[in-house]
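Hey, quick one: can you model this chain's 3D structure?
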Amino acid sequence: MADRPAPDAPFVQSLERGLDVLRTLTDASCGLTLAETAKRTGMTRAAARRFLLTLVELGYARFDGREFSLRPRVLELGRAYLSSLRLPDVAQPALERLASEVRETTSLTVLDGDEIVYVARVHGFRILTVSITVGTRFPAYATSTGRVLLAGLEDSALDAYLTRVDLRPYTAGTTTSRKRLVQEIHRVRCQGWAIVDQELEQGLRSVAAPVRDAEGRTIAAVNISTTSRTSLETLRNVWVRPLQDTAQLVSSEYGPPRS
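Sure thing. Here's the predicted structure for all 259 residues.
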């Protein structure tokens, strides 16, 4: 969760609660009933109903008589941010070339709080089981781009993240040990890339490399996603080099090189 404002700041709790309802609908793979929404947000049914019906009235959600779900108008909320962000525009051609070269799906993500957010994506020739689009969010610790982005944090910020994050398992292979995760992040810092093998979803492998700004700070990560049919040796020995070249290209085109 984002840092809360100072106690004397003009904080509007009703807006926070309305956004909680909106995020809850966003995180749901399908529609939610009133009872489900209330349970997930920790609100009373009456409070959840008011916020849901307000979203319906404003055109951001629909109600089919049983479940509430988002409508396309909700995309307006993120369009201004994406349109002002040059990085996806800069990265898109490079991602397309990389996807064509490796014949797999390529993506660009940024760190937002404790999660990664996909800001650009090019689908490859292989169909992946996990459904990911621009705007999809995942926990940073369980993804290759997330570990690259965590490796780019200052030690104090990384320590704070490790203190508050809930390392819940997504598969049998998910890293849930803080000690092991720290070791992996330090390895990523040293080698300049990360591989995650079926930790977010069974059968999904990915390799990622950092995109840096003119001061050398990690601002995004590029990755290649594939299935477990592709060997880890291919990821390490064949794909890391073109992946790093792509990340470096995006870095150099996004801002001037350091003097």
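One thing worth noting: Residues 232-254 form the longest helix (23 residues).
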